[in-house]
Design a protein that fits this description.
The chain is an alpha/beta fold and 308 residues long. It has 2 domains: 39 residues, no CATH class; 259 residues, 3-Layer(aba) Sandwich (Rossmann fold), CATH 3.40.50. It contains 9 helices and 8 strands. Strand 5, helix 5 and strand 6 form a beta-alpha-beta unit. The longest helix is centred in the N-terminal third of the chain and has 16 residues. The protein is globular, with a radius of gyration of 18 Å.
């Protein structure tokens, strides 16, 4: 299927919005203004039937902010969710955090905690973001010990942090997740190559994960691109003994090769794994409104998989 019209319209709009800019800084500002209007404010999303509460817990590096979502009625499970952003940006107010959490609570009947882990920068490096997510996971498990299935998940870099947390829990003890929910995971460095056929199809996408972009994210997160610890980009780690895993991949995404490889790796070591390919979608499609049909289908895949 071709790139979804939602994204082709967005690409055209970005190009037109940036055109009047005389400098790179002006073009970037115009592009960001267009995107804010095109995507909309995540905090405007309907939360009817969902109680939303901001809190914070103590962590090994200081307080960890969390936003908690509880559906009305009986709780049928719980999820800890980690937004994406290349380990270096993102917050609890983005669609990939707030709207995903609302919809997992609504569609899955689950309590959801969205974790505002520390972002990598000049002073914050691996394993600090994993430490934050692991501390949040241990706390969240204590809140819902008998509520039904417990899910641990995230998107892109957040999926890597969720997977790394599951590995740490496997190796050090503690409550294991019943399901991992991984959206277009950034799980490998170097990123696996796309097939020739997929590379040709990706020509329709103007915004790509070039080699230097990926190297920049890894340097910012780990501090280097050599001797990268296995659990930093956890596709390099030992993966047996993990919980049942649900993977959502975007059809038009350079990181789709990472999602596909991770699925094969998990299957090879006996981890039950299911995947859903979101047709026509580009990377980060959960950072857009569920009014886009494939965004809604991806959320349904996770919600149904958690209940299963």
């Amino acid at each position: 299927m071709p790139v979804d019209e939602y994204f082709t319209k967005m690409f055209r709009g970005l190009e037109e919005a940036a055109a009047p800019g005389a400098t790179d800084e002006e073009k970037e500002a115009l592009s960001q203004a267009f995107m804010r209007e095109y995507i909309g404010d995540a905090l405007d999303w309907d939360t009817t039937g969902i109680t939303v509460e901001d809190t914070a817990i103590d962590g090994p590096h200081g307080p960890i902010p969390l936003r908690l979502y509880r559906p009305e009625g009986e709780i049928g499970g719980a999820v800890l969710w980690c937004h994406g952003g290349g380990f270096g940006w993102g917050d609890l107010d983005m669609h990939e955090a707030h709207v995903v959490a609302v919809e997992l609570a609504r569609r899955g009947g689950a309590a959801v905690a969205s974790v505002d882990y520390r972002l990598a920068n000049d002073t914050v490096k691996y394993p600090v973001p994993i430490d934050d997510v692991h501390a949040a996971w241990e706390w969240w498990c204590g809140q819902y010990p008998d509520s039904g299935p417990l899910g641990l998940g995230g998107a892109s870099a957040g999926a890597a942090l969720a997977l790394s947390t599951a590995l740490r829990t496997r190796d050090t003890g503690g409550r294991a997740a019943d399901a991992l929910l991984l959206a277009y995971p950034f799980a490998h460095y170097p990123n696996p190559s796309l097939s020739p056929a997929m590379s040709a199809e990706m020509a329709a996408v103007p915004f790509r994960f070039e080699t230097e972009n990926i190297e920049g994210m890894v340097r910012n997160y780990v501090g280097r691109i050599s001797d990268v610890p296995a659990d930093a980009l956890p596709g390099a780690a030992r993966l047996d003994g993990l919980p049942r895993t649900l993977i959502v991949a975007s059809e038009y995404d350079d990181l789709r090769a990472s999602a596909d490889l991770l699925e094969r790796q998990l299957s090879e070591v006996g981890v039950p794994v299911e995947s859903y390919l979101s047709l026509g979608m580009t990377h980060g499609h959960l950072n857009h409104s569920p009014e886009v049909a494939e965004v809604a289908r991806s959320l349904d895949f996770f919600a149904e998989g958690l209940r299963a």
